[in-house]
């Protein structure tokens, strides 16, 4: 409908509504041809008739000089069928018009009733069956369109009067460009219409100021209509001992979920016992119950879920072991837990608006914390819109191999060659949570291994077979090329395997190996309790099985890597967001457990390998499990993170930092008599060291029996730290460099870190000594300092 047509229609519509008294009825001057406002023709209201007369004016009033025919878009009315209907309507209206001309000449001598009878009789003679209903439907559709057009015209009028002019506010510099983007792209996602965007500048500004935050609030808007969300009341968390509710939440339908539930049931008693002990030690502490969403992204159908089909075929189980333990720990600690293993569940829990994910959530984030993985993080980016940026500090990413700051900082990674398929999320690196404590820039989540009771320990001592070895490798491909040292081992021990196969024995497994096939967890535990040796072939890296074997009284023999494996030289690590040098199959077992429970040798050296076998046969060991991999250790650690890592959602500035030099030490400590800002870990644990040239802070702290603590970097990234270490600086500059803060003795250059996201324990440069913030740690709990609880 053109603008004149809309005007005619609007006048007729107004008259049809306003004139309820027949005495006041008059012709509508804007309508082409006679337009009596109180006539109802065979069930068709005046509104429909007037609209059709207006729309079809070009057809039934073309006889009037100067009239321009009006054309409707075929797609609006439904194509050729509708055009045929309109031709019939046009013919009918021609008859009606002639009849009305006749009736109008009768004057006051003819009553309204007589006119209606005459007109109704005319319609009865000409209308085909169903034509009235079709007219009504078309009229209703067009009237709906007219309402929308009127709204747009009104909003355009508002803009013309200055009410919806695009503001040029220096505090909102992106507002004009965002409005331009909305003008061109607002129909690209239905979520914009969901929030009331209709194509007008007013709707753009309302959306960009009230749903997103790129434009300033509109002064003419009634701000009281904006929904306000009351903060969720705080509740106290109470330890739980029953996991029944958790098992129901985990659900069914995937073999991976069944595996996780079996593990939860098997360890339920150990979790309950550990909860009682930790509850006793934390009795005086008030613990806040958190609202937590756990979204296991790698198990969703949208990510491919390659793990579930392999659970019963020897596939990797380490990730599912860890997720099962994370869910159990959060439940036992008493938090309010929601679990998602599908994209639909994720959208429902978060409050994702309908559409393609371009818009923010429909309300504030209904969770204090979200635990997910890289797959889940990608899914949240696709469906949370700008809300991901707003709430990303609440996310914890379960990340087996770790993410270093140089890979996490998107711009820096892109410019300096650290960009990979993972990483580049610009998170605080402590939001990444690893399976082992190999990357102090990240938080150590871990998992648990089954503990033995006193009866089981005695049974192991009686039933150990000194000449029995179990090979770490469920897939036949892991045995390929290992014949030489298997032959050496076979001279001393009976070798057992747990290689999966369906019908025929895998040819990679030598005939002298007794292969049990894939064993259920309980049967595998019984096998390990008899064996003296658990031997790894170099892959898989850093899995839970070696810790389980050591906990069952086995000695773990593993290969040393020369050179160390990394993303620079090994296919497995390529693309992973870390430059970590992996010196053996299981670096944690090598570094934190060591001999006599763990022996690391060069398998390519036959003499060294055979000597290690003989030493193992002579060595007696007790079952051993580090505290941090017990149920109590994991509960303690997760509790500490949840209650204390609240600072990840703030951006504290660099505080003034006076240091004191420790007596008889090259380390600096925070002055105890100075009022210090809040920090976790507490600043009492800080020890500042200078690394050697070409040494990372991980290695520098480790060589002093300490752990690098990235949370302390903001306190040492100051020029006073250099003078405290008696470093002479000709100048101090700040730049983006994941090695900084650091100094060069040769050139007297000193550099501070410009972006806190690049504070990094990892990384080394042959030119620089690094400033390294170190801390102590609790025995058996490397994630926590002595004063962290």
TrEMBL record:
Keywords: Glycoprotein, Glycosyltransferase, Golgi apparatus, Membrane, Signal-anchor, Transferase, Transmembrane, Transmembrane helix. Its main location: Golgi. The keyword Transmembrane applies. It comes from the Eukaryota. Residues 191-774 form the Glycosyltransferase family 18 catalytic domain. It catalyses: N(4)-{beta-D-GlcNAc-(1->2)-[beta-D-GlcNAc-(1->4)]-alpha-D-Man-(1->3)-[beta-D-GlcNAc-(1->2)-alpha-D-Man-(1->6)]-beta-D-Man-(1->4)-beta-D-GlcNAc-(1->4)-beta-D-GlcNAc}-L-asparaginyl-[protein] + UDP-N-acetyl-alpha-D-glucosamine = N(4)-{beta-D-GlcNAc-(1->2)-[beta-D-GlcNAc-(1->4)]-alpha-D-Man-(1->3)-[beta-D-GlcNAc-(1->2)-[beta-D-GlcNAc-(1->6)]-alpha-D-Man-(1->6)]-beta-D-Man-(1->4)-beta-D-GlcNAc-(1->4)-beta-D-GlcNAc}-L-asparaginyl-[protein] + UDP + H(+). Pathway: Protein modification; protein glycosylation. It is found in: Golgi apparatus membrane. One of its GO terms (cellular component) is Golgi membrane. One of its GO terms (biological process) is protein N-linked glycosylation. GO terms for molecular function: alpha-1,6-mannosylglycoprotein 6-beta-N-acetylglucosaminyltransferase activity. It is a single-pass type II membrane protein. Its EC number is 2.4.1.155. Belongs to the glycosyltransferase 18 family. This is alpha-1,6-mannosyl-glycoprotein 6-beta-N-acetylglucosaminyltransferase. It comes from Oncorhynchus tshawytscha.
